Amino acid sequence: MTESAQEDVHRTIERVARESYGRLVAFLASHTRDLASAEDALSDALLSALATWPQNGVPQRPEAWLLTTARNSVIDHVRHQQVVLASEQTIRLLGEHASQRNMTADFPDERLKLLFVCAHPAIDSSMHTPLMLQTVLGLDAARIAQAFLASPPAMSQRLVRAKAKIRDMGIKFEVPQQRELPQRLDAVLEAIYAAFGIGWDDIAGIDQRGRDLAEEAIWLARVLLKLMPQENEVRGLLALMLHCEARRAARRGDDGEYVPLSEQDPEKWSLSLIEEAEQHLAQASRQKRAGRFQLEAAIQSVHAERARTGRIEWRAIVLFYEQLLRICPTMGTGTGYAAALAEVKGAKAGLAALDAIRIEAVPSYQPYWAVRAHLLRQLGKEQEARHAFDRAIGLAEDPAIRRFLLEKRG
Amino acid sequence: MEFTLLVYEKPEAFAMRKNDDNDPYLGAWRAYYTTLVEAGVYVRGDVLEVPESGTTVRLHEGKRRVQDGPCADTKEQLAGFMVLNLPSLEAALEWAARCPAAAVGAIEIRPLEHQRKHQITG
Q1: pLDDT confidence of A205, banded at 50, 70, 90?
Q2: Domain match, A192 and A209 both
Q3: Interacting residues of B74 by C-beta distance below 8 A, sequence separation 6+
Q4: How far apart are CA A250 and CA A273, in angstroms?
Q5: Which helix (H) or strand (E) is A24 found in, with range?
Q6: What residue numbers bound the domain in which B62 lies?
Q7: Count of domains observed in chain A
Q8: Quick one: pLDDT band at residue B119, thresholds 50, 70, 90?
Q9: Bridge partners (DSSP) listed for residue B67
Q10: pLDDT digits 0-9 by tens, A101-131
Q11: Chain A environment of B84 (Cβ under 8 Å)
Q12: DSSP alpha helices (H): ranges in chain B?
């Protein structure tokens, strides 16, 4: 085989792995409830694909080939462990499903169940996102650790523990009942949004790893929407992330300096992403009661309007924030509301809104101090403003934002 | 729990110490220190003189060997330390990432040993 043909095979394997990883893991694990062994089996299958496909050629249905190989390896593994009767049934089920379907590659898409398992209330919420990134997208522990500011061995260990818990507690691979669906879905959406947030905060546009994670999150939301097209909050989340993603190129100036949203050049925004976001938002808002992500997307949509109108409709933003505060009174919402209110009713009103935020959450939230500094300066309280700037600078992680604040402080 | 943040800097960062008060790097450090103190996590810490001012002593086969300069000849040198009182390693990593030196040097986090002894003996 020529070198370029070899490369083709490798690319095919990479593509199949990326597109099918979550589907294959979800299908294998939905029968065994054992994520770790499903992942091991799949990596074995991918390894043997790397070993045999270059010689024998890529099978006609690569995904089915991987599934069959991985399934056999799971069965071997279960047999090898000589575990109890329950596993025998598992083997039978897995065997039946796979033998009936592997020739068509038409096995059921169990990723939705997998997403719900990853964000299960019995699993520590800080592990929801890492679990999703690993089991649905196939990201390795080292990369997840980077994103979460943890050491790779520590992250790896936490992932192993979480998967052991899923297996040992017998957490079911199922879509929750209607009654508990909203709450359980929230956890899934939160976890996807957290992945996006990390990709977003991480010096995006400069740092490739940050950028990738934001893209992965959007991909996850697309998968989720395909599986739950009737859920408006899924659409809301996707719209929110697309709106943010549309501005990526505008977030930094030519010298890598930070450009705040209201000063960004709309020419640098991606109109196609904005349009897609708007479509999702419009479709979601047909239902009367807007959820958290729809409201957040609506706020971003108002900002995006500036590309057309040249101005920001702050009153609309304030209204959306008021609704958002009722259902989601977080530090971020409170700070965003105060900033918007100041634009409509002046710095004094904005400062009062900041003061209304629970004090115990304040010390380490950087945007709070940045907004506070900005408003204090407008009110001519220079000394307090400089102090607030210091707090914001001290909490900044992104060097570009730190430079921006240092210059503002003067 | 107390964590020590060991701050490592490159020669460029050490050189900036000579700059005046308007230097952005020094300004970022002052802001960072203020924030640590006001967030209630700062326990103690200090800044070391530049590495060239160091003197290193070793005893080799009973003979004193004295060397001008720091112990290890590396690009990033120990510049100072901070002891922070924090609930977890994760929190320590967060604060380390915010440290101005993290973007131009490195921050090493080490728990203090006496605490582990405390934990063992109760």
Answers
A1: very low
A2: yes
A3: none
A4: 14
A5: helix A3-32
A6: 2-121
A7: 2
A8: low
A9: B56
A10: 444 456 778 888 999 999 999 999 999 999 9
A11: none
A12: 11-15, 24-38, 89-98, 113-121
Q: What pLDDT is stored for residue A16 in this prediction?
A: 82
| Pairs of CB atoms within 8 A across A/B | 53
Shortest CA gap A399–chain B (Å): 7
More confident residue, A362 or B78: B78
Amino acid at A323: Q
Q: How many domains does chain B have?
A: 1
Look at B36 and A403 and tell me if their CB atoms are within 8 Å: no
Average pLDDT, chain B: 91
Kindly list the residues from chain B whose CB atom is less than 8 angstroms away from the CB atom of residue A149: 90, 93-94, 97
Pair type for strands B42-47 and B55-60:
unpaired
Domain ranges, residue A131? 111-216
Mutate to test the interface with B, among A364, A384, A387 (most CBs of B within 10 A): A364
In angstroms, what separates the C-alpha of A219 from chain B's closest C-alpha? Answer: 27
Which of A86-90, A172-176, A242-246, B105-109 is predicted least confidently?
A86-90
Which of B29, B98, B104, B108 is the best residue to mutate to test the A interface, defined by the most A CB atoms within 10 Å of its own CB? B98
Contact check, Cβ <8 Å, A393/B93? no
A91 lies in the same domain as A170: no
Report the C-alpha gap between A320 and A299 in whole angstroms: 6
Looking at per-residue pLDDT, the higher value among A150 and A2 belongs to A150
Q: Which helix (H) or strand (E) holds A350?
A: helix A347-355
Residue B41 phi/psi, 5° resolution?
-105, -15
Of B24, B39, B97, the CB nearest to A403: B24
Same domain, A120 and A190: yes
Burial of A46 from C-beta contacts in 10 A (0-12 / 13-18 / 19+): buried
ipTM surpasses cut 0.95 = no
Pairwise CB contact (< 8 Å): B31 & A363: no
φ, ψ of residue A97 in degrees (nearest 5): -55, -50
- Residue matched to tokens 């996006």: A196
Q: How far apart are CA A95 and CA A80, in angstroms?
A: 16
Put simply, whether the predicted model's pTM sits higher than 0.90 gets the answer no
